[in-house]
Amino acid sequence: MRTIGLKEIEDIALGASLLGAGGGGDPYIGKLMAMGAIKEFGPVTLLDPEEIPDDALIVPMAMMGAPTVLAEKAANGREAKALYDLVSKYFGKEVYAFMPMEAGGFNSMFPIVCAASLGLPLVDVDGMGRAFPELQMVTFTIGGVSASPMALTDEKGNAVIFETVSNKWTEELARSVTMSCGGSVAVALYPMDGKTVKAYGVKNIVSRSETLGKAIRNVKESGDKTPEQSFLEFTGGYRLFKGKISDVLRETRGAFNFGTVVLDGIADCKGKQAKVEFQNENLTCTVENTIVATVPDLICLVDTETFLPVTTDALKYGKRVLVVGLPCFEMWRSEKGLELVGPRYFGCDTDYIPLEERCQEVK
């Protein structure tokens, strides 16, 4: 048990933005909201998953919708109380703690906002170890946990609880309501007991985000290593490409950001071209028509000078980026995991090959 204060917020937001693989929402907006909540209500207690009782009611909190919409249609600050009331009334018991659903810029911060404003602890665990675009894409689905009852509210005060026959149906119905509400809503979903959190959650994700954030901030204090070497070492990442953004094609469709970013090689990649496809999060990276990484492994773009993560909604012409691959949580490489988040689910015409194997083949 420890607390999250203003200093920790900075590092968590930065590290989670990297783990978001391009998605998860704008870290800047989320960080401002979290800092405001900490200043008003005080630090948030962060619990190790092993510290929570097996029968405690734990509720993941998140924002749902297209990240570009979220940047313009922010939360109003009352969502946490509305969602808490809906869930606690449904179960007839109090919520013991909140947890993040994914690692990503905004969605790493929103549960902290909720925890601070209601005086509840936050559990150091999530259901992805990264960010994914659809609600059913969590490790808890692999464990047979239902996404519903799922509570949803928008900034106008509209609220609803879904009871669905499958997690995919939760995604379909909630996505439709999200579109009707302007493309961005707050949700509480996958309510579960502490025993289930411990069995299927991605543990220590908040702590990992904080550690990564600190390392990114200090990446240029690397001693005899170059900043790039240091970055790849502390992230455990694979260098996929280095280039300048020459084109960005994007559209918002069905409350998702879809698109392609084209990179012209620089430095040792000069003369080559790469493409990264995304649906909120980066899905595939192709270098000279050869796939070098796919979901569920993380494909992350970072600034070549600062190594700050570049989200899909911040991609712009002329920016120089390093494309890095990070191995995903091991549960995603199982048969059930790949059914949920493998490349073929997203329409990519390739089987999943682990990042480390693809990179070895390229070499």
TrEMBL record:
Residues 8-163 form the S-Me-THD N-terminal domain. Transmembrane segments: none annotated. This is DUF917 domain-containing protein. InterPro entries: S-Me-THD-like_C, S-Me-THD_C_sf, S-Me-THD_N, S-Me-THD_N_sf. It comes from Sphaerochaeta pleomorpha (strain ATCC BAA-1885 / DSM 22778 / Grapes). Coiled coil: none annotated. Pfam families: S-Me-THD_C, S-Me-THD_N. Gene3D superfamilies: CV3147-like (2.40.390.10), CV3147-like domain (3.40.1610.10). Residues 166-355 form the S-Me-THD-like C-terminal domain.
